[in-house]
């Protein structure tokens, strides 16, 4: 029960006496008997004797009983009031006690909180002190070890020093003894060298005198050696440097390539793509810069190269890390390049299965092959089989050989025929040539050169006549102008333009050419022509 | 593989002439010169005392025999056996003697390193060089024989003098920035001089031929430093082995470290091959097994109280073609590590049953010969590993070995004897001249 309720209950005033005087509403003239009954009932319930005796409905008030009842009721009332007062007092007391308890409770709780905090703080401090203690103990241990080590070092150094000192002292003593000996000793052994004859220098040259020139030469030689060494080393280092630079550049290019190919396909990195484009641009600029001067070692270019490589490597590393993290997580619907773990595993399973199948296949193949090789386990049948195969092959080969032999014989015969024919042809040709030459000579000698400027028609007639009779034409046909030129070329002359010409030839030797058209030839030439053995005409249409 | 018969020698003095035609051995006070092919004695010379050091001249015409106790050096001629030359250092004593690269001068270091005397066989000239330093390697001739670098110490400071071997003219004299110079070595191209400090300080300095300091490299402080140094034949790399069991490779362009090779007790590198010699029955030819990786390498902890502890890389050798580097770590004395210089990684580990005494590369091919003091000779090439027993009656304990300059035979030395081993060229591959390695091929 809350104290406030008790309060209200206790604050309720005791029965106000004033209310009784005004309470005339209980009993009136009309309800006297009911009142009497009611009062009797109440009194009997309170264990008082009834004050009204109901005999024949007459209102008989027993005054003594009533007065006693009233007196008892008053006593009761007084007692009740007293008890109530006591109880109220007690209630007040207890409520104040409670209040007091509450206050102390809260006070104690606060105290408890404070003390807990204090406790924690003290624990913390204790812990810190303990760690401090531990570290200090470690320090102490280390220092002790250090001290021991240093002591060991000091000890070893001391032994070394002692050893050294003893050695020196011994040597010193020996020197002193020696000195004494030398002072006392009578004969002095002189130092000297005896040699049968002096030997020449190993390089055969004469000994040089020590002059300033030789000294400077020595200096020069020394510096030359040093410089050569520096040059060699520098050359080697430069070669190495160039190689390394090339490798670095290649690495950078590849890294950029890899990064760009990866990032092109990812939508998220669009901005970085642009950035990469720009870096690519700058990289390509650098490449151009450095391409032109691969041996350039200026700090700026070097720094740029190393910085750009670092950048690219960092990007590549991030990318790889990202890929790793993506691969470790199983994500669906991610970028297409990332294969989910399940798919990967399925793929692996499939590949393994394939490998297994292939292996089995190979094994079966091997077995079959083995069987094949082994099936002629019966050696005789195997031998027979082999023999039969061999025989078949042999016979086939024999047949082919026969065919080849026949063909060869045929070829031989044909060749012989051809050679005979060629020889015959040669003979005939020679005869023909001779005949032609004679004929032409006769022809030419018969015609005259008096009228060189004869109209062409006459020549043409002559030629037409000749044509019929020309052995050459008969034999080889009528030559076109081009063929004539070719033949002339063959005869070591090349006519400049198509015109009529006459030339003298014997066998394959050309003696002279006479351009007959619009040319005047001296008489000596004409005589030469007349006495010539072989004469041919070239005309515009042919060669006669 | 054929083995010759066994000859006597003393003091491990057995050298092949530079032209490869003769073999000279010293037996007590006698010098025996044999023809290399027939092993017949060609010349026999007698010296005045037991020979401590013997050296051929560069043109193979003269042999130098040094007798330190008597302070004498005798020079013998091959062309004229009756020619003689005797150099007496007298009371000043003799500590070391060597030829100059032209084969006509002899450099004698007197006792207590008081001075270096240059005796000439051509003239009467004698030169003296004062204040030479007594250290691990105080004198070095350049590969072309033109220059000599000498370490000097004056007034508690180190100096380096560069002489021209032609006429012993002092070309350069400069102070070295070392605390206590331990050694110097010319690069094969004669342009750079590597100078390193004693083991108390890790410092390696690179000087140019004209005396300029090119670079200084120091890997760490305070702990014991450099133990061994080797140039690669093409002068591209400088390998520095130190007491911390690591080899650091410097490159010739920047003189900075390009890599370091560690020698851990457990090998986990899967590309390396471990050859383990296994003790089998003595009658069969022991072939090396290839063990599975990760493999354990036997380690011997050195005594911490002794000076010059047996820890760290004591020997480095590059192969003639520049492709391989063989290293020996002193606290793993039975193992030999072979590194591939093209990939800069471990190639093979050869584990023997006894500490490796000596290993040398073939001057022509990428082939390594090693011995461990037992009767076997071991050969390694990239193709594999082979071990051969020396078939000599009585045991021939191979203490050291070296190759003939043609790479076709090995000279094996035991305590008192010498034996030649003729190899067929089928094992090891064709001749390769040293190549400049470019990293482009990586």
Automatic annotation (TrEMBL), chain A:
Record's GO cellular component terms: adherens junction; centriolar satellite; ciliary basal body
Record has Cytoplasm as a keyword: yes
Alphabetical list of Pfam families matching this protein: ADIP
Superkingdom of origin: Eukaryota
Region feature (Disordered): 259-292
Biased composition (Basic and acidic residues): 264-273
Principal location class: other
UniProt keyword Cytoplasm, yes or no: yes
Bias-annotated ranges (Polar residues): 274-283
Location within or outside the cell: Cell junction, Adherens junction; Cytoplasm, Cytoskeleton, Microtubule organizing center, Centrosome, Centriolar satellite
Coiled coil regions, renumbered to chain: 105-185
Keywords noted in UniProt: Cell adhesion, Cell junction, Coiled coil, Cytoplasm, Cytoskeleton
A biological process term (GO) from this entry: intraciliary transport involved in cilium assembly
Family to which this protein belongs: Belongs to the ADIP family.
Name of this chain's protein: Synovial sarcoma, X breakpoint 2 interacting protein b
Lineage, highest ranks first: Eukaryota, Metazoa, Chordata, Craniata, Vertebrata
TrEMBL record, chain B:
Coiled-coil features, chain-numbered ranges: none
Pfam families according to UniProt: WD40
Record-level GO cellular component terms: microtubule organizing center; MWP complex
Gene3D superfamilies named among the record's database cross-references: YVTN repeat-like/Quinoprotein amine dehydrogenase
Name of protein: WD repeat containing, antisense to TP73
Lineage: Eukaryota, Metazoa, Chordata, Craniata, Vertebrata
